[in-house]
Amino acid sequence: MKYSEAEKKIRELSSKYSVEFNNIFDCLNVNYKGTEIAYISTGRPYSVRVRVEDYFKKLPFSNKLYMIMAELAITPLDERAEEKKKYVKVYDSRVGYLNINNFTGKMSVSDVFEGNGIKTKFTDKEIEEFKQRDDIPLDWNKVRFEEVEDES
Question: Which of 25, 60, 79 finishes a domain?
């Protein structure tokens, strides 16, 4: 389970739940009405802690909440974070970015905007797969990669 997936599932339980990273203590805090009620370690697998058990079990959907936290805790640490995506800049221009048609798999060069079946943001794994394709005639030593700043 990814951190983002856990956060989404927790927030869906109630608008009173929130999630935040605590980089000082290497954990993901789970809050109810702004008060920390539990946390999952971001540095150790299988580590879930409930602050006050009697309070926690009275919360709405506490069993479901604990199951979400446990699923995240058993996920290997290197599989929890979202993989960074990149734009492939073919040449210097506002419209110099690699685009892949989701339906046909064909390549084109245009802007960075996704939609209408066009993909412009790629993981390292996808880029490595593109390098093996004969139908993408790029000199991979000359293209540049730009990290996608915000996936929201």
Answer: 79
